[in-house]
Write a structure and sequence with these properties.
The structure holds 2 protein chains of 2 kinds.
Chain A lengths: L6 E5 L1 E9 L4 H14 L3 E7 L14 E9 L10 E6 L2 H7 L3 E10 L5 H6 L16 E5 L1 H8 L7 H5 L2 H13 L4 H10 L4 H20 L5 E5 L7 E7 H16 L3 E5 L6 H8 L7 E4 L3 H13 L3 E6 L1 H17 L3 E7 L16 H6 L8 E4 L6 H15 L2 E7 H5 L1 E5 L46 E3 L14 H17 L15 E8 L3 H13 L4 E6 L1 E3 L5 H6 L1 E8 L4 H9 L5 E5 L8 H13 L2
Parallel strand pairs in A: 1-8, 2-5, 5-6, 6-7, 10-11, 10-12, 12-13, 13-15, 14-15, 18-19, 18-21, 21-22
Antiparallel strand pairs in A: 2-4, 3-4, 3-16, 9-16, 14-20
Helix pairs in contact in A: 1-6, 1-7, 4-6, 4-8, 6-8, 9-10, 9-14, 11-12, 17-20
Chain B lengths: L34 H15 L6 E5 L14 E4 L5 H11 L4 E7 H7 L1 H10 L3 E7 L34 H7 L4 E6 L3 H13 L4 E6 L11 H4 L4 H4 E4 L6 E2 L5 E6 L2 E6 L21 H8 L7 E8 L5 H15 L5 H5 L5 E3 L1
Parallel strand pairs in B: 1-2, 1-3, 3-4, 4-6, 5-6, 7-11
Antiparallel strand pairs in B: 5-11, 8-9, 9-10
Helix pairs in contact in B: 1-6, 3-4, 5-9
The chains are: A alpha/beta, B alpha/beta.
Chain lengths: 616, 347
């Protein structure tokens, strides 16, 4: 056989998606692929896409689990719109994911699974590998199941165990496609299956078999070469948004000297923050898995009173349950961070899909005049920084802070440049000194309007606080009309004062132009790429992406004033645009909204921007 | 894991008195309300504990009972309806060096806060809970509560309630409670005594106070607490002593097969030797449950400490796990954590 060399295609970026049945190990495959990509020096972003059910019926569309990885030699800001390579382990996963593949994409499918019963169960009437329907793609029919079994036939494994390694065969094919080595993956096997040498051996064998298969049969007409990304020097790791959030709080605890307490109740997609913090008792983390969402936040309020950096983590429905207690934290003016990893709503909604539809709830979802700081993270990696800043603001300004992330940020992962804790901004909570003769529960710092934090156990500071309206200064229960007005105004002014301590809003692009694209939270990557695409075409478009929502940065008015048109893009029906209309009226806002449980694609945004710029 | 840590609460260097705990706030309960007696008993107990006054913390929910923290000069939080147990849990876990007390009512803890109530008990967090049971919603002016006797006419049950009431003792033991005491508001000496026992107990202590609401449920406990016949309708349990009661100390409780029975001493050949001897430290809650369930007219109502069993507390175990992790983990700082696992240098 004459060995022909495959074409080498040089690419700036490639999007790969692994899809299969929920039991096929697609999440692990995707993770190992991205770790190897990271070690090869590429920038990347990932997103797992899995069904709400733990194990939906086998071989059905409902049971398809996926993992998308976007890698590149350039800065990667999104998990990618459509994929260049789709690895499909069964007919159902091909059926449900073909729409996410680019025209002409490479499809690597396990041909062994395309039996009549299986493709019919997936909703195909004829075998899609045989009917010519995939002619527009670079279809690679790989005998993944049979070759996996074949490569393990001398290993003494039963078929069920052998089949569990199928995903490694697919991964081996991918490593050949990108020309990568096995080291990182072998290291993982050695750690993961430490006491099971047989399993290590099986996985290595199948991974190599997949690679050799791809090399030997010339199944792939071309291979990719993605150069190393030019990334800011430093030490890096891969991190998910939920882990970054948890670590940001740990850093804030260490930097402020305040012990960390989390009261939480498991809820998708926020649970991983609870799981992550529960691992770190060596850093003093006290993690209380409460009996419900309300107990989660109320235990945190109790911990806050005693001087802990107090946290509660949840998703939309849980935030609803916590509303009354957030009011208590506002009234008692205690520091508290409430993390809402947003998901599709209302009610139980779409637990595993992502939306930005809790903004109104975060801003307004409480009884009474009840202001709280609202901050939104915008990438998986910067969730670390915004968690840190949320904790800093909560403690220094003695206020609850609601930190909004979302399912895509929380579960997605990105490269993260590891900071040194000592380099992070200092945190100085206003802790009252023992026997301070001037101490009163509601006496305020004139600059921040924050009251002092008097910790139980301290001599000379015994005091009571609670949910009833309090007399300014002394903090006794008061129903005096003018006092209530004053306290309402003070609580609002205290939150507004936070604007003096946050960065000014940045503009990506010129300060004046035809169009300002406004976005907030988890849509940063897609909107930024679309705007940069327009800018590269010479269009006078700029981008303002908001992380500080309540209060807004002080220069927001100025930012909004330099443009003929303003377009606000968000994954809800227009919550931020209405908030801007309320706080910064007088501008002619346009809006682009999507509420499908899906992120924006760069492609749809560039189309929208192009259309708006063409309209006169 | 059950090794007891030395989690002592710092003791006062000076002798404290009731005056150290009096707040400057006007007490706004109705004249004749049972809460006044409870406040007085608590203020009597606090100096006896010997703790620094700064290390005592009072938490409450909502309702008449829950104004309590304002009337004592300690650290305190007046919380929201039903959530005192959750707030207290956070306080104690975050700072185990505090003596945490909780004032709550039958509505606050057995209705809206029922979930938190059973879970704090199940976890055995070291908190002393005083449950003001007046069998009515007082602050909202007279609706029935989860302990209102069936058939009672109240504002929301004009034809009488059709709900089976909770017996708090039964609920506490069902939730694996380690400490339960009951006391009438008309017996301040016994109240002070059981509160002291509750403070000594490591774990969640529940003190049910049979409280009178003069406005909306006056004399609700009268059948048991009236001076005329209280000695025949109550039995004060004392650890290690035979269960004797009655104005003439001539009645007792014995175990007949698997059930409790009231007997008269000297009749049918029964003597003190036939009576049950109270063992409040017994781990098995069987007899404790039967005692907690005794009710008029077949039995005297049990008062005093019914159960005080030793079990590890949640708050101690939290500290043990943290100590263990600090000693054994390689992660000593957040910088260690950030650089753990797979990381790489980009130059």
């Amino acid at each position: 056989m004459v060995k022909m060399k495959s074409n080498v295609i040089q690419r700036e970026e490639v999007v790969v998606k692994f899809v299969g049945d929920s039991g096929d190990g697609m999440q692990l495959t995707g993770t190992l692929f991205s770790d190897t990509a990271a070690l090869a020096g590429l920038d990347l972003a990932t997103f797992p896409d899995y069904p709400a059910e733990i194990r939906a019926p086998h071989n059905t569309v409902a049971g398809v689990s996926g993992y998308q990885v976007h890698i590149g030699a350039k800065k990667i800001e999104t998990t990618g719109d459509l994929c260049d390579v789709l690895v499909a382990m069964n007919p159902a996963s091909l059926k449900s994911n073909l729409k996410w593949a680019k025209p002409g994409a490479t499809l690597i499918v396990d041909m062994d699974t395309f039996e009549e019963a299986a493709y019919k169960k997936a909703g195909y009437s004829v075998n899609p590998l045989e009917d010519g329907s995939l002619d527009g793609y670079n279809l690679v029919k790989a005998p993944i199941t049979s070759f996996t079994r074949g490569s393990l036939k001398d290993k003494g494994l039963d078929q069920k165990t052998a089949d569990k390694s199928k995903n490694m065969f697919a991964l081996g094919i991918m490593y050949h496609l990108f020309g990568w080595g096995f080291e990182a993956t072998f290291d993982f096997f050695n750690k993961k299956f430490k006491n099971k040498p047989q399993v290590i051996d099986a996985n290595r064998t199948v991974l190599e078999a997949g690679y050799s298969y791809a090399e030997a049969v010339e199944a792939l007409s071309s291979v990719y070469q993605v150069n190393k990304a030019s990334i800011q020097p430093g030490r890096y790791r891969n991190i998910t948004g939920n882990t970054a959030t948890a670590w940001g709080f740990l850093a804030a605890s260490e930097r402020s000297g305040r012990p960390i307490f989390l009261g939480s109740y498991p809820i998708t997609p926020a649970t991983d923050i609870l799981i992550e913090l529960a691992k770190h008792k060596s850093l003093g983390a006290k993690v209380f898995q409460a009996e419900d969402e309300i107990a989660g936040i109320c235990s945190a309020i109790g911990a806050s009173y005693t001087g802990s950096l107090a946290l509660t983590t949840t998703s939309g429905p849980g935030l609803s349950l916590k509303s009354e207690a957030i009011g208590l934290a506002v009234m008692t003016e205690l520091p508290l961070v409430i993390v809402d990893v947003q998901r599709g709503g209302p009610s139980t909604g779409l637990p595993t899909k992502s939306e930005q539809s809790d903004l109104y709830q975060a801003l307004f979802g409480r009884n009474g005049e009840c202001p709280a700081v609202v901050i939104a993270a915008s990438t998986s990696a910067n969730s670390f920084y915004y968690a840190y800043m949320s904790a800093k603001i909560a403690m220094e300004h003695m206020t609850p802070v609601i930190l909004l992330t979302d399912g895509y940020l929380g579960n997605g992962s990105q490269l993260f440049r590891i900071p040194k804790v000592a380099d992070l901004p200092s945190i100085n909570p206003p802790i009252a000194e023992a026997n301070d003769p001037d101490y009163l529960p509601y006496r305020r710092n004139p600059e921040t309007l924050a009251r002092k934090w008097a910790l139980p156990g301290t001599e000379g500071l015994r005091h009571r606080i609670g949910g009833l309206e309090k007399e300014d200064g002394r903090g006794n229960v008061s129903t005096d009309p003018m006092n209530h007005q004053k306290m309402v105004d003070l609580r609002d002014a205290k939150v507004q004062k936070v604007a003096d301590y946050i960065p000014e809003q940045e503009i990506n692009g010129e300060k004046e132009g035809d169009l300002l694209v406004v976005s907030w939270g988890g849509t940063l990557g897609a909107v930024q790429e679309a705007v940069e695409e327009m800018q590269s075409q010479g269009k006078k478009v700029s981008h303002a992406h908001f992380n500080y929502i309540m209060p807004l940065p002080k220069n927001t008015k100025e930012v909004l004033s330099g443009f003929k048109k303003i377009l606000v893009c968000e994954l809800n029906s227009g919550q931020f645009v209405n908030y801007l209309k309320m706080t910064h009226y007088g501008h002619d806002y346009m809006q682009y909204n999507k509420v499908q449980g899906l992120p924006f694609t760069v492609n749809e945004l560039t189309q929208v921007l192009t259309q708006i710029l063409e309209e006169k | 894991m059950t090794t007891k840590l030395n989690m002592t609460i710092e003791r006062s260097s000076v002798e404290l008195t009731k005056d150290d705990f009096v707040s400057d706030q006007m007490v706004k309960w109705c004249p004749g309300c049972g809460s006044h007696a409870i406040l007085s008993s608590v203020a009597n107990v606090f100096p006896k504990l010997g703790y620094r006054k700064e290390n005592i913390m009072m938490v409450s929910g909502i309702g008449c009972s829950s104004r309590f923290p304002y009337y004592l000069n300690t650290y305190g939080i007046h919380g929201i309806h039903g959530r005192a147990a959750a707030i207290s849990s956070g306080v104690k876990i975050a700072n185990p060096h505090l003596s945490v007390w909780m004032a709550t009512g039958d509505g606050d803890s057995l209705a809206i806060g029922g979930n938190h109530f059973i879970h704090i008990i199940r976890r055995n967090i070291d908190i002393n809970i005083v449950l003001f049971n007046n069998q009515i919603y007082g602050l909202t002016k007279g609706q029935y509560s989860p302990t209102t006797p069936m058939g009672s006419v109240t504002k929301t049950s004009p034809q009488g309630t059709i709900e089976h009431p909770f017996n708090p003792g039964e609920l506490v033991l069902g939730a694996q409670g380690t400490f339960f005491a009951r006391v009438p508001d008309s017996n301040p000496r016994l109240m002070t005594e059981v509160m002291f026992e509750a403070a000594k107990h490591d774990g969640t202590s529940i003190i049910e106070v049979l409280e009178n609401c003069v406005i909306f449920a006056d004399k609700t406990h009268d059948m048991i607490t009236n001076k005329e016949f209280r000695d025949d309708r109550q039995i004060v349990l004392r650890n290690g002593e035979p269960m004797i009661f009655g104005k003439n100390k001539d009645k007792g409780i014995r175990l007949n097969g698997t059930r409790l029975e009231v007997v008269t001493l000297g009749e049918n050949g029964f003597s003190e030797d036939d009576l049950l001897v109270h063992d409040m430290y017994q781990q098995d809650p069987g007899i404790h449950l039967m005692l907690a369930k005794m009710s008029f007219p077949h039995f005297p109502v049990a008062m005093g400490v019914i159960r005080a069993a030793m079990y590890p507390t949640y708050d101690d175990m939290v500290e043990e796990q943290i100590t263990f992790a600090k000693q054994n983990s390689k992660i000593k700082s957040v910088d260690d954590l950030l650089n753990s696992g797979d990381t790489w240098e980009i130059k």
